Amino acid sequence: MEKEISQAVIRRMPRYYRYLGELLDDGVERISSNDLSNRMCVTASQIRQDLNNFGGFGQQGYGYNVKYLHDEIGKILGLDQTHNIIVIGAGNLGQALANYVKFERLGFRIIALFDVNPALQGMTVRGIKVHMLDELDDFCKENQVDIAALTMPKEKASITASHLVDLGIHAIWNFAHVDLELSQQDVVVENVHLSDSLMQLSYNIVKNQKQK
Amino acid sequence: MEKEISQAVIRRMPRYYRYLGELLDDGVERISSNDLSNRMCVTASQIRQDLNNFGGFGQQGYGYNVKYLHDEIGKILGLDQTHNIIVIGAGNLGQALANYVKFERLGFRIIALFDVNPALQGMTVRGIKVHMLDELDDFCKENQVDIAALTMPKEKASITASHLVDLGIHAIWNFAHVDLELSQQDVVVENVHLSDSLMQLSYNIVKNQKQK
After folding, report:
1. Which residues in A lie closer than 8 A to residue B77 (C-beta atoms)?
2. Mutating which of A7, A102, A199, A206 best tests the B interface, going by the most B Cβ atoms within 10 A?
3. Whole-number pLDDT of residue A179
């Protein structure tokens, strides 16, 4: 088994991937650890430490090869695979996710939305069909589903998540306002709590007020 | 000036607030540090350390008074103030934010949406009006705006953020796919990168596959 890498490091990897992608788009072929550090506003030593978790990718006196590092980090993040996503909850947030073309470019393909609201039946979002929730079981049998995004009220989130796991979906991207805790060891959950991020913002607003 | 508290601690505070709120709803008046620890799946020592940053709130042999701790953390997070929010970008995501009643209960009041799309002019979302972007300057002069949420394409995000800062808005909640870096010291930015969280999820998917 590989060495356990801290979630703090993992949280920073998508940001590296994003910055390296922008460098690639700008036609930059290599970058020194100092230049990357300035651009990303983290210390060069932090970058070296983070990347050393995966074996390190720099060469003394050369820096980093942008394309190589971008591709390697992409592999670490599983972006060399395609992930099929279904979205449970076809309200504004579910539709917003379906409309993000950016996800598709990263290999995340939203293949269906589900809702209980009959008014949404037959609707499509960017060509992606909204199904009724009672079609979920059949859909999951007939299609490869890798990730379920939950954009539904918190009251139903836990029970829906358990049902999805029973259907064989082992990755949950949870937007409901509750920490999903699933007992199965091989299920991964990523919680996105928008109000938590709003509270962090207001903490920093108050801190600023105090410093004035 | 107060001791600088790490952002890692700040990131955990909204979660404490959320769990304590649930305990309050359940009628729980006090809780031992061990019970809170079990419920939140963090160690009791982590809880004590986190809360000690703010002076600590527990009593040996008593545990925590749920309402008191909830209120105190609320104050730390600035939830004893009302924050007026405008949303720039009235697409699905902007509308999803406007529809979250939860934010209002925390003191975050969305007072207007803005967009450049004339088709949205005059529309309302949960009674909140969509304005055209050219009305932004006047609106900010006539209304107290504390936070601007950016739910617009990344190409326009940086220039819009700078303009908002010029209009006196010192807190940005950024959903655009770019790290906003504003030079003004008294501006706070909270970035929500949905694709970063999706990449963390896929990292954990791949890690699980390897362990099988």
Report:
1. 199-200, 202-203, 206
2. A199
3. 84
